[in-house]
Amino acid sequence: MNIMKPMEIEMKSFEIISRELAGRIFDRQQEPVIKRVIHTTADFEYADNLCFSKDAMDKAIAAIKKGICIVTDTQMAMAGINKEALKRCGCEVRCFMSDQDVAEKAADQGITRAAVSMRKAAEIKKPLIFAIGNAPTALMELEQLIREERILPALIIGVPVGFVNVVESKELILQLDIPYIVARGRKGGSNVAAAIVNALLYLVSPREN
Amino acid sequence: MNIMKPMEIEMKSFEIISRELAGRIFDRQQEPVIKRVIHTTADFEYADNLCFSKDAMDKAIAAIKKGICIVTDTQMAMAGINKEALKRCGCEVRCFMSDQDVAEKAADQGITRAAVSMRKAAEIKKPLIFAIGNAPTALMELEQLIREERILPALIIGVPVGFVNVVESKELILQLDIPYIVARGRKGGSNVAAAIVNALLYLVSPREN
């Protein structure tokens, strides 16, 4: 095995992905997002699963250029977002899942911490991107907040993974007239959410080799 | 969609996974690990990919019962490990990837931070479980440290994901006479590494409903 630098390995990986996707034509803007998710999962199903609203890439890139707050539903997704790229773009990331007040409200109201986290995020007075890789209830809460016109996210990344309520929660987002990137079906995860955020950040501020 | 408690959702998810795996017979000890990885990824390929050394489950459970240090190769895997379960088991988790001295040594020696992290972990005077979800070079370094008899891990979880050196690095671990759980092939990830650790912790200390 040759020892290569991380960026060399990444470039070679993307070459292999492109080769194995031979013949597939993607939207030019969506392509780096799709390929980064495949890079993160080694799962080519994402070439078919990922659904982009028509304006998702334009809106997300414009929002990131202005500096946004990214809200995740897991510490794991937050940990997976490239902090240097985030800083270069003048963006920040927040996750409220472990906050004491969130746990208390969830217990009081008999709803999930993920739902309470979304309500807490709705109070932030900055443009928001939601990166949801775990909790269907986060997407369900977001859908309600949007329908009630209490938030208007710059983008929803809707990629929870799992077997219960996951498919349905994603379909709710697909029906909204907002910018979204959704992994249709059961697949997704915090790693996928972080990969999509990183792909967007790298589009706005490419890394050096 | 019914709103259920997280543990109810998890139980229902495992029922669905069991139903869709109908007919598959797994080793009784390995089964909860395999199913938790499928639960984390919604990817049934792990029913075939995951390779366990003959003694992996016994050794891992015995080690966790005595209190061990789990070393990860990403902050993301560390973030995904259940901290309450870790505490109940008297275990701890460490990740050296962001340490200043690791970055400096990697630059000086022209090797990856992941490799330096493994050498740093080898200095820990406690039984170790390595949970490697990202870096093939971490596995390659571990293999060398083991062959040089500088470490004897209680378990190596070898589940990097990707297209370059990943398959080969896992095959190196499969050739060692040590306890391992390896996801053969390209697939894996920090989420898979964390899921395997959590499955082991829950076997030693089950959660309450």
UniProtKB/TrEMBL annotation, chains A, B:
Transmembrane segments: none annotated. Gene3D superfamilies: Cobalamin biosynthesis CobH/CbiC, precorrin-8X methylmutase. It holds the Pfam family CbiC. One of its GO terms (biological process) is cobalamin biosynthetic process. Pathway: Cofactor biosynthesis; adenosylcobalamin biosynthesis. Residues 8-203 form the Cobalamin biosynthesis precorrin-8X methylmutase CobH/CbiC domain. Keywords: Cobalamin biosynthesis, Isomerase. Its EC number is 5.4.1.2. GO terms for molecular function: precorrin-8X methylmutase activity. Belongs to the CobH/CbiC family. This is Precorrin isomerase. It comes from Ruminiclostridium cellobioparum subsp. termitidis CT1112. The lineage of its organism: Bacteria, Bacillati, Bacillota, Clostridia, Eubacteriales.
